[in-house]
Amino acid sequence: MVYHSSFVDEEGITKACGCPLLPLKSHIKGPAPVSEQDKTDIVDEAISFFRANVFFTNFDIKSPADKLLIYLTFYINVALKRLEGCRTLAVGTKAIINLGLEDIPVPGETGFPFPGLFSLPQSQDEADLFRNYLKQVREETSGRLLSVAYRANGTPNKWWLAFAKRKFMNVVVL
């Protein structure tokens, strides 16, 4: 059974491209509302559910937050692939920063990994809002992922990096 997001209440949450812009425990500038530090956010869920959800080829969507969980699971898979050959935290951090500098496609653009998962943007403003939110959530996920993918002494955690070999939902990561 797939793990689903606990963020099912959409009251008062802004949406872009059919995706809720959920609050983040983040200091990174962006369109996401700030969450309380002691609460679980979508990034915490994505990282904690990753090792179970990555094995599934089908994902039954029960709430719009599940769409974001799918996207983040895929992003974590991409990030782990980039970290696979990095033997120290410093080299891994550099690889993650380079991943963060890449263009972020939105639905309807080439390179978006899940066509049909999110609705197409109705305007350029909505596309920019969604792109900025994805950029913010990816940066936050990257930072937190480094803390679990590497041990305190800066060496790789093989129990996390082993999952770089997995394909999520049969999507091939290049």
From TrEMBL:
Residue ranges annotated as coiled coil are none
User: What GO cellular-component annotations does this UniProt entry give?
Assistant: Arp2/3 protein complex
InterPro entries in the record, alphabetically?
Answer: ARPC3, ARPC3_sf
A GO BP entry: regulation of actin filament polymerization
Binding partners and assembly = Component of the Arp2/3 complex.
Q: What does this protein do?
A: Functions as component of the Arp2/3 complex which is involved in regulation of actin polymerization and together with an activating nucleation-promoting factor (NPF) mediates the formation of branched actin networks.
Name of the featured protein: Actin-related protein 2/3 complex subunit 3
